[in-house]
């Protein structure tokens, strides 16, 4: 039995904004509403949801950057609102993007300063910085200023920064955003390695296959509430008995999509534009019937551009987010 | 030992980030020259002793104050923009400690304004800087730096609460220079303005410096000014330390760690 590292009990978070100058109007935005969850030590726990769902707000609360409006959250047994000082030495985080670094300093000097902020001894810090910069492939560029780094290099430096204090809990908010496929794969491998050392990892990403491959459990968040928490396999099983038909069409996807949605066996159909082609993804309870319909009613259908497969996490996510019964 | 390292590295990071900003360089290197020239034009027909005092100290002290407020507000603004403010808040190091190190570095950098004013006044305006009582001057300057530094630390708290720190910096700069008696004596201000200036270390610090430049040996008023600079400075320093804890929680409550 692993000890519980993160406990969130009925956490809500409101943001108050004001508009207008003479007629000021106060607006309250509910970023999180009654969120509860528990994460065990060594687990990779994922948060997925649309933009603005509240994922980053929850991570900011757990990293002590925000306090909850109501409810309570504990990390490593300490309350995030009142015992932030006890939590901070043992956690670290990455918020996706290029910010959070001193651009006018070198990569090495950035890490030296972050090590000082975590009260890490100079001797230990020097060894750790060399190890981390080597691990993220920036050791040879360590003396270059961060302002000259590419987006991917900055993201890799963020990873080194997040590991500087050998955290017990690591919060990664879209860590692979902006990374090229090779660097993203290396980061996923690194995340697995970190987990093997017993570190608890909180992860958010819009790449569903990435979440499916890495996470032990995933919470699906929408409009500040958790819709479902389960393993990726169990979430995918929500579509048990269903199959997915994907078809690429040259510009006729809208029309075909509208027709397909009328069919009884079709649960949902979504369309993505990619260049001159449109990809229609259909969740169907009777894939052969759906394919037969497409073949009969779509003159431009190329059989080579038709794929029938079992549902994955992304399909389950779409089902949950779109609220399809 | 870890705190010593953090203090030094914060100062180094701060200097590296600050001095590279073109606008800060203008405030530090150009503004003292502009102020010294302006004050010289105002006082050129006055007694020689008064000219030297107001040009040299007025320009220099205004430069120090501008560089300190500009830099303090600029740091908060820039760190919000760069997203490093969140990193500083979430780190185990005390935010008050980190900001104290930044303001000490600001103070050291701002001293350059005084040096530039003295050199410019001597070489270009032909105003000689005579120190009749060097020890008193050093004491007065040290108390001025401590007092204004403590006040800047206090202001940093206000800047932390808002996403538009630069507005406060611009609004506060000139009134505080006037209330501080930097370019002309506080005695000519209205009574209500003089009452406000009583709680400003910059006012007592600048008066101590002017008194230290007088030909007569330091008198009771000099010592009173030094004492008041230290007392008001200490009060602002203590207030800043207490406020930092409250402000940090407030910023986490408001959720304005980053620029909107």
Report on the structure:
The complex is a heterodimer of chains A (325) and B (260). Chain A is α/β, with parallel strands linked by helices and 325 residues long. Chain A folds into 2 domains: 4-230, P-loop containing nucleotide triphosphate hydrolases (Rossmann fold), CATH 3.40.50; 239-321, Alpha-Beta Plaits (2-Layer Sandwich). Helix content of chain A is 33%, strand content 31%. In chain A, the strands form 3 sheets. Chain A has a 6-stranded mixed β-sheet with strand order 6-7-8-3-9-10, sandwiched between helices. A 4-stranded antiparallel β-sheet of chain A has the order 2-1-4-5. In chain A, a hairpin with a 2-residue loop joins strand 9 and strand 10 (225-230). In chain A, helix 3 packs across helix 4 (122-135). Chain B has one domain. Chain B contains 10 helices and no strands. In chain B, helix 3 (48-82) packs antiparallel against helix 7 (165-179). Chain B is globular. The termini of chain B are far apart. The chains are: A alpha/beta (325), B mainly alpha (260).
What attributes does this structure have?
heterodimer; A: 325 residues; alpha/beta; Rossmann fold; Alpha-Beta Plaits; 2 domains; 6-stranded mixed beta sheet; 4-stranded antiparallel beta sheet; globular; B: 260 residues; mainly alpha; 0% strand
How are the secondary structure elements laid out?
The complex is a heterodimer of chains A (325) and B (260).
Chain A: E1 4-19, E2 25-40, E3 44-48, H1 55-62, E4 70-75, E5 78-79, H2 84-87, E6 91-95, H3 107-117, H4 122-135, H5 151-162, E7 169-173, H6 181-196, E8 200-204, H7 208-214, E9 217-222, E10 225-230, H8 232-236, E11 243-249, H9 253-261, E12 266-274, E13 277-284, H10 287-297, E14 306-309, H11 313-322
Helix pairs in contact in A: 3-4
Chain B: H1 2-19, H2 22-43, H3 48-82, H4 84-90, H5 95-125, H6 134-161, H7 165-179, H8 191-197, H9 201-212, H10 220-254
Helix pairs in contact in B: 1-5, 2-3, 2-5, 3-5, 3-6, 3-7, 3-9, 5-6, 6-7, 6-9, 6-10, 9-10
